[in-house]
Amino acid sequence: MFELTKEQKMLVKMTREFCDNEIAPYADEWDRTSRFPAEAVTKLAKLGLLGVNVPVEYGGSGLGEVEKALVSMEIARACSSTSEMFVVQLLVNGILVKNANEEQKQKYLRMSCVEGKLGAFGLTEPGAGSDAGSLQTTAVQDGDYWVLNGSKCFISNLGPNEGAYALVFAVTDKKKRSHGGMTAFIVDRDTPGFIIGKLEDKMGIRAAAVSELILEDCRVHKSQVLGQVGKGFNVAMSGLESGRIGVAAQACGEAQAAFDTALEYVKQRSQFGKPIATKQGIQWYLAEMATKLEAAKLLNLKAAAMKDRGEPTAMNSSMAKFYAAEVANEIAAKALQIHGGYGYMKDYAIERIYRDARILTIYEGTSEVQKIVIAKELLK
Amino acid sequence: MKCIVCVKQVPDTTGVVAVKEDGTMDRSKMAAITNHDDLAAVEAALQLKDETGCEVIAVSMGPAPAEGMLREVLAMGADRAVLVSAREFGGSDTYATSQILAAAINKIGVEADDIVFCGRQAIDGDTAQVGPQIAEKLNLPQISYAADIKLEGKSVVVKRLLEDGYMMLKANTPCLITCVKELNKPRYMTVRGIMECYNKPLNVFDYNTLKDDPLIDATTIGLKGSPTNVYKSFSPPVKGAGMMLEGADKSTVDQLIGILDSKHLI
């Protein structure tokens, strides 16, 4: 029923080889030092991976959601921080493709896909997480400009040296708010009043750049409006389902990494005279983990394939994200348990993967929000 | 200008070697990879393509699955590929193989500006004979063990790696160069390359295509015609290089304990 094409298999092979050589060997060091993998970004752009979901005429590789998911899984298997950067960039790519005008696409998509200069998604605020409609950042028109004021938090791909531009969402009509009162802007990093604040010190994905963003009388020309004035909420939502498919793939990749460490460990570790792989309890753990992982991948790829065919994916993309994020955490926890005391030590990769996985059930829509979406579709 | 690159799909011998009763490798039970030295040859050709815009043609002698490897070389940037494949060619030793590949290269055509690239040796046979033998059959000057290549007009200047040093050699084109994996870092396939590789030409040369070439002697090709045969293949017992720890103080002991601990030996 579901088999990869020859080209998709080659794409997976290439990405896996690249990640095995250029990313995986450095993942633990990047985590330990909280060093953003800038060189990985450049290499991903050069290979055409950073623009995997962008049309060729804008510097991308012109592929679909399935290819995006396959590639994201491989990158996440090698390094969660790199994959976090990657899926956010793909989210930004997707929103620009759907909503930007021709000039904006040529400029910003090429900037990211060809030059490797990252874009950020500036929606979340201290008081607006799951409730994206309750933004406080404002944009007031002043002649040919809009003046932005407010603050955003937990913005990925923004850091002291990271991020060339951000998609910033602001209230342009306080009465209408999410129903015609929000507008999206593309704001360049060097715009006066665009201030990158505190770099977050995180539990996991420590090499990913996640920062506060402060907008202080930030003047943005009207040509930087993304989509139409008042349609900002729609712009944000236009990337949602695809974004969920991307994070689901990230979760699958991290789960795979966790599982792989456990599978290797059980063959090496001996207790009571035999490898622990011979113990039925351990075998049952592995079987359960592998089954959940396979189910997560299939849910993910099905949602991606549906999206590529233009079918509605509200429910399937939420199912994919919800399930993959939850089982990634379960698998990481079980893998750590299998490692015993060694799993608690920073010498072992599972310690990092366990921390990295924790954010998956929270960002890009919490598991609770995904369940609301699924239930809403079921009860239509 | 053309660069013709010989590439071979080989079993991955870094793991366990599976052997058939006749002493030859059981390739069906081993992972297939592209020979490392050949990838260096491909990269050398592609770098010349980047520099001069020349055409790069990949040639491989092997069974049908080798087409997948050739598609990967096309995805790296080669322009077209030739698969030399026939039952009559199966089981050929280096003498027979070089004859067949030389005939294939002859059919593609070698012109004044052209360079034939080969890897130094394949990891399954490890003879390093095929490249030089092809050069002899095609009457091409040859430089082996290339660790650096520069094009200078109608000549190449090559740094030839020796065990204890190197020599600098110059040859006019057309010529043949064998490459060591230290020559370069082969590029990855690109996404666009992958999506376009199945649209690039890939021709199959079978026995009928090449049998009338003067370089082919029908009595010296294939398993039966090969002057040499594999007597025995086996995996030697693995012997680690070991690790020397200097010193006899507590810090050395701590280091030893750390290593044994990390390998779960204590």
Describe the structure.
The complex is a heterodimer of chains A (380) and B (266). Chain A is of the alpha+beta class. Helix content of chain A is 51%, strand content 16%. Chain A has twelve helices and ten strands. Chain A has a four-stranded mixed sheet with strand order 1-4-5-8. A four-stranded antiparallel sheet of chain A has the order 2-3-7-6, with helices on one face. In chain A, helix 4 (65-78) runs parallel beside helix 8 (240-268) and helix 5 packs antiparallel against helix 8. The model of chain A has no long low-confidence stretch (mean pLDDT 96). Chain B is α/β, with parallel strands linked by helices. In chain B, 29% of the residues lie in helices and 24% in strands. Chain B has eight helices and eleven strands. Chain B has helices at residues 36-52, 66-76, 94-108, 130-137, 191-196, 207-210, 222-225, 250-262, and strands spanning 2-6, 9-11, 32-34, 55-61, 80-84, 115-119, 142-152, 155-162, 165-172, 175-179, 202-205. Chains A and B meet through helix 1 of A and helix 2 and helix 5 of B.
Describe the SSE topology.
The complex is a heterodimer of chains A (380) and B (266).
Chain A: H1 6-22, H2 24-33, H3 38-47, H4 65-78, H5 80-99, H6 102-113, E1 119-122, E2 138-142, E3 145-156, E4 165-171, E5 182-188, E6 194-199, E7 210-221, E8 225-226, H7 232-238, H8 240-268, E9 270-271, E10 274-275, H9 280-308, H10 314-339, H11 349-357, H12 367-378
Parallel strand pairs in A: 1-4
Antiparallel strand pairs in A: 2-3, 3-7, 4-5, 5-8, 6-7, 9-10
Helix pairs in contact in A: 1-4, 4-5, 4-8, 4-9, 5-6, 5-8, 8-9, 8-10, 8-11, 9-10, 10-11, 10-12
Chain B: E1 2-6, E2 9-11, E3 32-34, H1 36-52, E4 55-61, H2 66-76, E5 80-84, H3 94-108, E6 115-119, H4 130-137, E7 142-152, E8 155-162, E9 165-172, E10 175-179, H5 191-196, E11 202-205, H6 207-210, H7 222-225, H8 250-262
Parallel strand pairs in B: 1-4, 1-6, 4-5, 5-11, 6-10, 7-10
Antiparallel strand pairs in B: 2-3, 7-8, 8-9
Helix pairs in contact in B: 3-4
